[in-house]
């Protein structure tokens, strides 16, 4: 496992880490024993960073992380998020009283005294423009409750706004082969300001594994069913904003990326790892096998300059126009 510095913080984290949305809920049936086995395998392989949120399974993924990392609190870094347990459009959700309550609840579930990276969970642009929540986070940081803080954003514009705050140390961004816009300006600016990048939705909700057909179906409690067209939250969080059938079609057109890399999953993650501004990529998982496959991405060959250019041209010519939602 290789490690990268999270912006200009003192956190040195594994370049491949894991998100825990899937093991918390909203991805169909889950198995806690399998989830814990996956977490332990990741740590054995050198993963020292996990991303979660208070609303993943109503705190279930935080509890799983507490169990898996017991006794390793000083070795394993945890990033969690807040605000979506309330009304994200209500300014009161970001008041000191509310944020402190969200934080204390996460600390209890995680069985920790401090959060390594505390993130605002995809807040509206108006909240970021107001900026009051950052003063709250500054106070909690001074108190030692959080080590550093960042923002999970939906759009490049939101990312730019966050970069105006010198104490924002990380941006979590939807980024994958189908979703390349952040590469243009956001990533270089973040690097210049010493802000780390966490790449989420790296496999476009499974489209970039190459395993789906247009006939594939998903359980009623899986966001790939109930949010397919953005009915529940930002459509970009599901299939990177692509209509499902179009996404399946596009994934078939780039099957060549798996040459020399075993499969599309490893290739898609490798492509992200090859972007120097990215601190870590955070694929999700539900099974031990998926953890193993994701870990293998760190060992497969990097993309050549010609291959990177080919994928950029593919994105611009065949993908970009089909992406829906704020971007």
From TrEMBL:
Ranges of residues in domain NADP-dependent oxidoreductase: 15-315
Lineage of the species this protein comes from: Bacteria, Bacillati, Bacillota, Bacilli, Bacillales
Gene Ontology molecular function, alphabetical: oxidoreductase activity
Entry protein name: Predicted oxidoreductase
One Pfam family, short name: Aldo_ket_red
């Amino acid at each position: 496992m290789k490690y990268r510095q999270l912006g200009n913080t003192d956190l040195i984290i594994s370049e491949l880490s894991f998100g825990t949305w899937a093991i918390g809920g909203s991805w169909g049936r889950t198995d806690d024993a399998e989830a814990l086995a996956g977490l332990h395998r990741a740590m054995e392989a050198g993963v020292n960073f996990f991303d979660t949120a208070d609303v993943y399974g109503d705190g279930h993924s935080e509890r799983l992380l507490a169990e898996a990392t017991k006794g390793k609190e000083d070795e394993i870094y945890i990033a969690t998020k807040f605000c979506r347990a309330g009304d994200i459009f209500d300014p009161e959700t970001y008041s000191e009283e509310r944020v402190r309550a969200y934080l204390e609840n996460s600390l209890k579930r995680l069985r920790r005294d401090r959060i390594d990276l505390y993130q605002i969970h995809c807040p509206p642009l108006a909240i970021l423009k107001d900026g009051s929540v950052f003063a709250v986070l500054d106070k909690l940081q001074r108190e030692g409750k959080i080590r550093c803080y960042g923002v999970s954003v939906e759009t490049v514009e939101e990312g730019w706004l966050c970069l105006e705050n010198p104490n924002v140390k990380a941006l979590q961004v939807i980024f994958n082969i189908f979703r390349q816009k952040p590469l243009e300006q956001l990533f270089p600016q973040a690097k210049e300001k010493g802000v780390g990048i966490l790449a989420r939705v790296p496999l476009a909700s499974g489209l970039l594994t190459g395993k789906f057909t247009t006939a594939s179906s998903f359980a009623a409690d899986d966001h790939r069913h109930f949010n397919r067209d953005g009915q529940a939250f930002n459509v970009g969080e599901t299939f990177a904003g692509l209509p499902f059938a179009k996404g399946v079609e596009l994934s078939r057109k780039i099957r060549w990326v798996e040459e020399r890399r075993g499969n599309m999953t490893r290739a898609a993650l490798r492509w992200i790892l090859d972007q120097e501004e990215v601190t870590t990529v955070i694929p999700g998982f539900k099974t031990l096998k998926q953890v193993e496959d994701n870990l293998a991405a760190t060992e497969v060959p990097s993309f050549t300059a010609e291959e990177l250019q080919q994928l950029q041209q593919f994105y611009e010519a065949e993908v970009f126009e089909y992406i829906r939602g704020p971007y």
